[in-house]
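ok so I'm stuck.
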Amino acid sequence: MRKLIQQYAKDLTAGRLASGYEHSFRVYHLAREIGESMEYDDDVLHAACFLHDVEMSVGHPASSAEKAEAILHETGFTPDKIPAVIAAIVNHMPDGRPESVEAKLLFDANLLDSIGAVGYVRLAVGSFIWYHFKTMQDILEYFRRELAHTSKLHFPRSRDLAKEKIAFSQAVIDQFARELHL
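replied:
not stuck anymore, here's the structure
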């Protein structure tokens, strides 16, 4: 079942530089690292991490959750666990309100993959693909907003993992701002 879920994720996100399979893979492994000493349902976490970005339209958490539900039924995923996966996917973005441990792990891991060196590249690519920004100032403000979301990290381990990434991201933002205002 896990291999099927991952194959769906690969197929549905093929060719996506900023939100493709590699992102989902990193998110899953970051979530497991954050949750190392916690009790959580790894089946729910795995499915939520690999399927959270299968759709990237406006409002993608809801559309990804809808697509994920169909995939999970098709793969024979335990039916009583599907609502937990859906809730995690719907709430994985900074405006979400994750409640379960698995949802909070996905939220934190997804946010961690949006800061630091990888996050910088993801956001730079995404600023054009997802938001169609037209100015460098728009991109700078986007970077600032994303970094500010780190205040929403749920777990001490997430905050520890974020420290170096936050420092890097802040340095990039500061340098970017200086260069824009020469």
